[in-house]
Write a structure and sequence with these properties.
The protein is of the alpha+beta class and 357 residues long. The chain folds into three domains: 71 residues, Alpha-Beta Plaits, CATH 3.30.70.2700; 182 residues, FAD/NAD(P)-binding domain (3-Layer(bba) Sandwich), CATH 3.50.50.60; 60 residues, no CATH class. The chain has a four-stranded antiparallel β-sheet with strand order 2-3-1-4, with no helix packed on it. Strands 7-6-5-11 form a four-stranded parallel β-sheet, with helices on one face. A three-stranded antiparallel β-sheet has the order 8-9-10. A hairpin with a 2-residue loop joins strand 9 and strand 10. Helix 2 packs parallel to helix 5. It is globular. It starts with a strand and ends in a 10-residue tail after the last strand. The relative contact order is 0.14.
Length: 357
């Protein structure tokens, strides 16, 4: 496998046609290509009179010796997960947001059968609850834009970007594609899924976990923890007023930042926690056309996606101000999880075709 980087494209062509240009430019015999795929696709708009797409591709060649000028690719492998005494483990996951779902997915892929409890609704019902809040102002404190299957990110933009360089980043992207995300998720420089796609993808992940022996208990809230000899024994739960106990040898807390009552309970039980700095933000709307002109200029003939931006300011006092969670072509939505509070968020569908961001 070899890699060709910095392939500049100045015309509007489909991604699957890139190989034709590469063959011509680098004088590659088509019969030497066994397979190929795009590794990265980005937009270079640093010079407004030279806006272009930039591709990197991997090629599997039958005769690499003929193409020594290309960089060789080393295949990366994920760290191995070893589980001892598989049958004696009873894992319980609290929360079915991104962390909870991927914890459950990883467990079933390695032979475990976790139970996932979620105080909010399954995604199908949650969509109805959120729409009811938007249209009628009726808030359900247990199931809303922040709480429920898929977590707060479901009704957001579905951005899949990070500053870390973990080998598991590629696995996360691949799993999203496995469960219904577009193939381009694997190679776009700044991939996003969109709320409209996420709703179906989350359901597909849940159904796969159940098919492998996992369980989901929705509208089920953890209210206490039974700990003996510094080991978890069970979790006390409530569902529609009924209190019951779920045995557990291991518990994953994937509760999100807004599960304040659970944090109070953990503190009360003496669970070690560390404070972390947090940011207070405001939601700003721009016309998408204005951002497009600022980022792309007006001379390019390329069909480009809605533009986005990132700004940061760092003061000498150590404090900073920065942009985050931009939703190009999106809309500002009400996102409260408590009564008598006002919280907003941004949300984009996959096409990002709204006029504001």
């Amino acid at each position: 496998m070899v890699k060709i980087s910095n392939i500049k494209i100045y015309e509007n062509i489909e991604d699957d046609k890139i190989i034709d240009l590469v063959i011509k430019k680098y004088k590659i015999n088509p019969s030497d290509i066994s397979n190929w795929h795009i590794v990265k696709k980005s937009i270079d708009a640093r010079k407004k009179d030279d806006v272009h797409y930039n591709y990197s591709i991997n090629l599997e060649l039958k005769n690499e010796n003929k193409y020594k000028k290309f960089e060789k690719v080393t295949k990366k492998t994920l760290p191995n997960i070893e589980i001892n005494n598989l049958d004696k483990k009873t894992p319980l996951i609290i929360g079915s947001g991104p962390s909870g779902l991927f914890a459950a997915l990883t467990m079933v892929q390695n032979g475990l059968k976790p139970t996932v409890i979620e105080q909010g609704d399954a995604i199908e019902k949650r969509q109805e609850v959120v729409n009811n809040f938007r249209n009628n102002g009726k808030l359900n404190p247990l199931s809303n834009v922040q709480f429920g299957e898929g977590g707060a990110g479901t009704f957001s933009d579905g951005k899949l970007t990070t500053g870390i360089h973990s080998p598991f980043c590629s696995k996360v992207l691949q799993e999203f594609v496995n469960f219904g995300a577009p193939e381009s998720t694997l190679y776009l420089a700044k991939p996003h899924i969109g709320t409209d796609n996420l709703i179906n993808i989350i359901k597909n992940i849940r159904e796969y976990i159940i098919s492998k022996g996992g369980k989901f208990l929705f509208n089920t809230k953890a209210i206490d923890f039974n700990i003996k000899d510094n080991k978890i024994k069970s979790v006390i739960c409530t569902n529609n007023g009924n209190i019951f106990e779920l045995p557990a040898t291991h518990v994953v807390l994937a509760i999100g930042h807004s599960a304040r009552d659970t944090f109070f309970k953990l503190y009360e039980k003496g669970i070690l926690m560390e404070k972390k700095n947090f940011s207070v933000g405001v939601r700003i709307e721009h016309l998408q056309d204005s951002i497009n002109k600022a980022q792309y200029g007006t001379s390019t003939k390329l069909k480009l996606p809605p533009a986005e931006y990132k700004l940061a300011y760092h003061s000498k006092t150590g404090r900073s101000c920065y942009t985050f969670c931009m939703c190009p072509g999106g809309v500002v939505i009400a996102s409260s999880s408590d009564k008598n509070t006002i919280v907003t968020n941004g949300m984009s569908n996959y096409l990002r075709d709204r006029q504001k961001c």
